[in-house]
Design a protein that fits this description.
alpha/beta, globular, Ribose 5-phosphate Isomerase B, Chain: A, five-stranded parallel β-sheet, 152 residues
């Protein structure tokens, strides 16, 4: 699978560990940074390019990390076509893909440790969108919202 990873300083160490593990499993990894640990960096600088690549279909899935996962989730969801969610539990890691076609998982490095993060990412990557009519209907409503002009 073609997977992108992005993290600021808060998620840097976890990103590096996950990237290595996913490469070992045979996934093609694109690293959007940070390339080095810098406590002055900003998560949008890495998460937005990742989200854009997912939205363009260059990547099948994305993994965005920061200290809590909240900022990464907010940033990724600003890109039309991205369905990102902050995930810290097993059920949501798979169900988010199956029902909501989740394409970017967001994790907080200060919330989940490496083992937990790897388990959540593994479930996220293994899950497939159901394509059920009710789920397609809901996603179409979200897609309409993405095309609205702000303030209109």
């Amino acid at each position: 699978m073609r997977i992108g990873l992005a993290a600021d300083h808060g998620g840097f160490v976890l990103k590096e560990s996950l990237a290595a593990a996913l490469r070992e499993k045979g996934h093609q990894i694109t690293d959007f940074g940070a390339a080095r640990l810098d406590i002055a960096d900003d998560y949008p600088d890495y998460v937005i390019p990742l989200a854009r690549a997912v939205a363009r279909g260059e990547l099948e899935r994305g993994i965005a990390l920061c200290s809590s996962g909240v900022g990464a989730s907010i940033a990724a969801n600003k890109v039309a076509g991205v369905r990102a969610a902050l995930i810290h539990d097993d059920f949501s890691a798979a169900q988010g893909v199956e029902d909501d076609d989740l394409n970017v998982i967001c994790l907080g490095s200060r919330v989940v440790d490496y083992q937990r993060a790897l388990l959540l990412v593994t479930r996220f990557l293994a899950a497939r969108f159901s394509g059920a009519e009710r789920h397609l209907r809901r996603l179409a409503k979200i897609a309409l919202l993405e095309r609205e002009v702000p303030g209109a």
